[in-house]
Design a protein that fits this description.
- By secondary structure, the protein is of the alpha+beta class.
- It folds into 3 domains: 85 residues, 3-Layer(aba) Sandwich (Rossmann fold), CATH 3.40.50.20; 55 residues, ATP-grasp fold, A domain (Dna Ligase, domain 1, 2-Layer Sandwich); 198 residues, D-amino Acid Aminotransferase, Chain A, domain 1.
- Helix content is 27%, strand content 29%.
- The chain contains 11 helices and 22 strands.
- Strands 10, 11, 12, 13, 14, 15, 16, 19 and 21 form a 9-stranded antiparallel sheet that branches. It has a 5-stranded parallel sheet with strand order 3-2-1-4-5, sandwiched between helices.
- The termini are far apart.
Length: 379
């Protein structure tokens, strides 16, 4: 007898930002029910599902919120993992598992995990204070990263010379060898509770030179097949070693001699997978839902080459958001604008993204540049 799919369960999402918003949008196709917890009463998910205001790091708040949920997931790592562990002990399905979230919350633990499991990554030294960093001048040039709570480029400082050491964080962190890489790529990998694993083809990321945020993304990445295979193997090894159920974004460096090194991982839908909504058979959001509710994972093939441009708040603009150049951009064939429902803009705040699809790579890049230079978020 065939197994019947039922929607008589509620998925609780810790975090009501744009990733949660797009997760809900995908879940509507399966008639899934969601409940959201976020500290911001005007979060992007407000109005799309049952919405509750509260701190994601507060034990009692998370416990209370989750009582009416059958499955609990996240769209941001900064959550109370002790509460999630207790919920799992009570029989709630918590995906990704709290132990994996806890490990990933601290970049120091992440790096030790790679080292202990023979996952290739940049050489590093753990530091406790700024004074510690001063003891390792021979290790420069390097990147100093905060162990905890760095996000979207915050909590990262490039330390090239002795003169830069004052920029180091006076808190537990890690000093990581500065890699002279050729490209930055990402592979999104999913695993369900049955142990089925599927990867998305690698994508190539271009970062803002000052703010360490993705400016452009191109899919598929223009890399050699052997490099793509290496990246795929590494992503699979990471998720299988963690035993994680859900979605994992694995950001990597490709060195000039073709070596692939893991930079960081994120246990949730990710900026490097937005383009999958239009450009892949299955989106990253549907894949995450399939993984956590126990469905077979979807096909991840690229349907058409794509680019993604992050829509960031313009410098010098703070206040109610307006979108300059919107009509010109949506008039271009193959351009898809996603606005995140944030009422107010501020410099470099993520306000949306734009996916561009085109079979011609030159035309794709030309359209991506047009979007980047035409669509501005102003106040």
């Amino acid at each position: 007898m065939k197994k019947a799919f039922q929607q008589n369960f509620t998925i609780g999402i810790l975090g009501g930002g744009q990733l949660g918003r797009m997760l809900i949008q995908s879940g509507i196709d399966y008639n899934l029910s969601f409940k959201i917890l976020d500290p911001d009463p005007e979060a992007p998910c407000k109005g799309l599902a049952e919405f509750e205001v509260g701190k994601l790091t507060d034990y009692e708040t998370v416990m209370r919120f989750a009582q009416s949920c059958d499955i609990i997931t996240i769209e941001i790592e900064n959550v109370n993992t002790q509460a999630l562990k207790e919920l799992a002990r009570q029989g709630k399905r918590v995906y990704p598992q709290p132990e994996a979230i806890e490990l990933i919350q601290d970049k120091r633990s992440q790096k030790k995990f790679y080292q202990e499991n023979n996952i290739p990554t940049a050489e590093f030294i753990l530091t406790e204070t700024r004074e510690d960093v001063k003891q390792h001048q021979a290790f420069l040039p390097a990147v100093h990263k905060l162990g905890r709570e760095g996000y979207d480029g915050r909590g990262v400082q490039i330390i090239k010379t002795q003169a830069d050491i004052e920029k180091a964080f006076d808190a537990p962190g890690l000093l990581e060898k500065l890699i002279d890489f050729e490209k930055e790529i990402a592979v999104i990998v999913a695993r369900n509770a049955n142990g089925e694993v599927k990867t998305f083809p690698p994508v190539e990321m271009v970062f803002h030179p000052e703010h360490n945020l993705v400016e452009y993304l191109f899919s598929p990445a223009e890399i050699k097949p052997e490099v793509a295979q290496q990246a795929d193997r590494i992503a699979r090894k990471v998720i299988e070693t963690l035993g994680l159920v859900g979605l994992l974004a694995v950001e990597m460096f490709v060195t000039k001699n073709g070596e692939v090194l893991v930079n960081e991982i994120a246990p949730r839908p990710h900026n490097s997978g937005h383009q999958t909504i239009e450009a892949n058979v299955t989106s990253q959001y549907e894949q995450h839902l399939r993984a956590i509710i126990g469905l077979p994972l979807g096909n991840t093939d690229v349907l058409i080459p794509s680019a993604m441009v992050n829509l960031l708040g313009s410098e010098g603009h703070t206040g109610p958001a307006r979108y300059e150049g919107f009509e010109e951009v949506v008039n271009v064939r193959g351009v898809y604008v996603h606005l995140y429902g944030k009422k107010n803009t501020k410099p470099f705040r993520k306000m949306g993204h734009v996916t561009i699809i085109d079979n011609n790579i030159d035309s794709l890049k030309e359209k991506a540049n047009f979007v980047k230079n035409t669509l501005n978020v102003i106040a």
